[in-house]
């Protein structure tokens, strides 16, 4: 116990380097995602003190979701990358594959389909593609899936209205990373 505030002291660093591999992998993926400069999503919360929890903003570029941004929480299990992360929409969205609690139906992140070589950026790209093209074979909201199939105009109006009411404001585009200029050799 720490005598100053009666809090337990953190455990000492592991002597087994394999125990730290999940954190190394998560930190590497975070760095890769942040340095890509992609305009369709942003990491808005990922702390060194809580590396197993990220929050991202999805910024779709196709209607009916292109008028807002959607906050998604990614929770990594301790066994990552051998077990899949959990993706949860924190922002309400009108979509056949996302339920009212924010749970997402993506086959790639089901335990039976998960591959340790899968990268978070790949799943985010699949999530964005699913927003644009719902998987109607695996709906979590059958009423919304039926509407999408039978009356696309009404679905688009409802999704657009939901986006306007619930989505976050879209952030400004990030500037392109500057390329280093090469110095000319003196002749």
TrEMBL record:
Coiled coil spans: none
GO molecular function (one): ATP binding
Residue span(s) of domain UBC core: 21-168
Keyword Oxidoreductase recorded: no
Catalytic residues, chain numbering: 105
EC top class named in words: transferase
Pfam family, one: UQ_con
CDD domains: UBCc_UBE2L3
Ranges of biased composition (kind: Basic residues): 178-187
SMART domains in the cross-refs: UBCc
UniProt xrefs under Gene3D superfamilies: Ubiquitin Conjugating Enzyme (3.10.110.10)
Keyword Nucleotide-binding: yes
Keywords for the protein's UniProt record, in alphabetical order: ATP-binding, Nucleotide-binding, Transferase, Ubl conjugation pathway
PROSITE patterns assigned: UBC_1, UBC_2
Top-level taxonomic group: Eukaryota
Compositionally biased spans, kind Basic and acidic residues: 157-177
Classification via InterPro entries: UBC (IPR000608), UBQ-conjugating_AS (IPR023313), UBQ-conjugating_enzyme/RWD (IPR016135)
EC number: 2.3.2.23
Catalytic activity entry: S-ubiquitinyl-[E1 ubiquitin-activating enzyme]-L-cysteine + [E2 ubiquitin-conjugating enzyme]-L-cysteine = [E1 ubiquitin-activating enzyme]-L-cysteine + S-ubiquitinyl-[E2 ubiquitin-conjugating enzyme]-L-cysteine
Region (Disordered): 147-187
Family: Belongs to the ubiquitin-conjugating enzyme family.
PANTHER family: UBIQUITIN-CONJUGATING ENZYME E2 (PTHR24068)
UniProt protein name: Ubiquitin-conjugating enzyme E2-18 kDa
């Amino acid at each position: 116990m720490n005598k100053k505030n009666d809090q337990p002291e953190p455990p000492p660093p592991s002597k087994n380097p394999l125990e730290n591999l999940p954190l190394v992998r998560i930190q590497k993926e975070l760095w890769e995602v942040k340095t890509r400069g992609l305009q369709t999503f942003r990491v808005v919360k990922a702390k060194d003190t809580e590396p197993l929890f990220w929050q991202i903003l999805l910024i779709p570029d196709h209607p009916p979701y292109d008028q807002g941004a959607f906050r998604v929480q990614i929770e990594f299990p301790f066994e990552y990358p051998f077990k899949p992360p959990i993706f949860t929409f924190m922002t309400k969205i009108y979509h056949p594959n996302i339920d009212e609690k924010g749970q997402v139906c993506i086959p790639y992140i089901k335990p039976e389909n998960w591959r340790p070589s899968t990268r978070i950026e790949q799943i985010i790209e699949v999530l964005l593609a699913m927003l644009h093209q719902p998987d109607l074979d695996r709906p979590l909201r059958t009423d919304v899936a039926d509407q999408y199939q039978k009356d696309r105009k009404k679905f688009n109006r409802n999704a657009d209205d939901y986006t306007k009411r619930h989505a976050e404001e879209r952030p400004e585009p990030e500037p392109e990373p500057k390329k280093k200029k090469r110095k000319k050799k003196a002749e």
